[in-house]
Amino acid sequence: MTSAPADPALVVDDVTVRYDTVVALQNVTLRLRPGRVCGLVGTNGSGKSTLFKTIMGLVKPTSGQVTICGTNPAVARRRTQVAYVPQAEAVDWNFPIGVREVVMTGRYGHQGFLRRPRPADHEAVDAALERVGMTALAGRQIGQLSGGQRKRVFVARAIAQGSPVLLLDEPFAGVDATTEHALTGLIRELAAGGHAILVATHDLAGLARLCDEAVLLQRQVLVHGAPDEILRPENLARAFGAPPPVNSVQTESYAQERARR
Ligand SMILES: Nc1ncnc2c1ncn2[C@@H]1O[C@H](COP(=O)(O)OP(=O)(O)O)[C@@H](O)[C@H]1O
Ligand SMILES: [Mg+2]
To answer: What pLDDT is recorded for position 166?
Structure first.
């Protein structure tokens, strides 16, 4: 890790993003320190994926700036200081590439410009596949995997990359409870190892287990605090619109949000 523990690994400073007429993010400010998991919670269209893309430098902010380990997104990406697991819909699953090759692409930044994997790269890929429990399927094409297996492959790619900042866009979407549980454990382990992790999730019931802190996003940061604070009925109501019922706030709000999709 290049950052001292007290320094934020990721700084999003007053970022506004416009797509033509749509304001996707408005004056978003966020700091994330090494060793912390921050949940990103909000309805569809609230700007979560845009925030990830902006942090990666794939979308240019209209104003404001992003700093990763003290530098800008383009440089941080070149230095492999940031790893990104995109939302599943953003990936072409018909692309003919095997599990091992996908994970190896995470090592490109570590290889020479001829991109010839060295023993250390193979070791990192093996270790990452092992860590997500995908060793046995290393020879498969990604198109032949289940949704949960695909997620694990992309998480393995991020692990192999060895980046201090990890961005996970809805890693639990379409995965079964067992995989979600395993991924949550893995995310906690990675944070314990010093990674700073921003993770978008719709699973409010699992928020406290997953995160140290969370952001309620609705184009702007509505609340940034401990999971308990995010889950307060009045805060959820601000993000999800409908007044939450008195009982089982978490699951009800989640169901309402899902029903609107
Ligand atoms: N490439 C794009 N061009 C125009 N509008 C976009 C584009 N990507 C996202 N948007 C819009 O920006 C808003 C935020 O979208 P997004 O970041 O995907 O939200 P989320 O990931 O929370 O569902 C939405 O209104 C969406 O329609
Ligand atoms: Mg999204």
So the answer is: 97
Question: Quick one: 155 and 65 in the same domain?
Answer: no
Distance from the alpha carbon of residue 10 to the mean position of ligand 1, in angstroms: 22
Measuring from atom 18 of ligand 1, which residue has the nearest CA?
49
Last residue of a domain, one of 162, 192, 225: 162
Q: Is residue 235 part of a domain?
A: yes
3-state secondary structure 18-51: EECCEEEEEEEEEEECCCCEEEEECCCCCCHHHH
Domain boundary residue among 108, 127, 162?
162
Q: Are residues 168 and 194 in the same domain?
A: yes
CB 32 within 8 A of CB 10: yes
CA 217 to ligand 1: nearest atom = 22
Closest residue to atom 26 of ligand 1, CA basis:
45
Give the chain's domain count.
2
Please classify residue 220 by burial: count the beta carbons closer than 10 Å to its beta carbon, then call 0-12 exposed, 13-18 middle and 19+ buried. middle
Distance 89 CA to ligand 2 centre (A): 9
Instruction: Name the residue with the closest Cα to ligand 1, atom 1.
Output: 19
Q: Are residues 149 and 246 in the same domain?
A: no
State pLDDT tens for residues 20-32.
999 999 999 999 9
Band the pLDDT of 248: cuts 50, 70, 90. Answer: very low
86 assigned to some structural domain:
no
Measured CA distances, 215 to 82, 135, 226, 229, 255 (Å): 20, 34, 9, 10, 20
Tell me: do 77 and 12 sit in the same domain.
yes
Domain of 251, in residue numbers: 1-81+164-261
Q: What is the mean pLDDT of the chain?
A: 89
